[in-house]
Amino acid sequence: MLMKRLLSCISYCHSHNIMHRDLKPENVLLEANKEFDTIKVIDFGTALAYKPGQTFKDTIGTPYYIAPEVLNHNYGKECDIWSLGVMCYIFLSGIPPFNGGTDSEIMSAIKSGKFNFNHSVWKNVSKDAKDFITTLLTYDPKKRPTA
User: Which residues of the chain, if any, have pLDDT below 50?
Assistant: First the structure.
């Protein structure tokens, strides 16, 4: 339910030509009932209005959640979908898909785009959930789904 709501929020933003550029769990507020039926995405300080097809070059975002195309200085709204994929991976496992001891190591792991479900925590996660994450973390932003 949480991912459905997050995708709905980002779909709304993208339909109004706004990309967030720094999606992470700290920027998601949950209502007190904890049913995940009402959420708020916050901190639009790095958000940007864009024209369809427009690309950007500045590196913006938080290391664990940043998309590889942002690190390659050629990105658009699809970077938000990647960040949601990272969030979903972390929500289900408690560990990031791209890790390292330093920001530089994390960025190198992201640039490789390689992640796996080898940790024991993934044994009890459905194939559908893993497929969903894999789809969101599609390396080529043109092949990534929209919100």
Answer: none
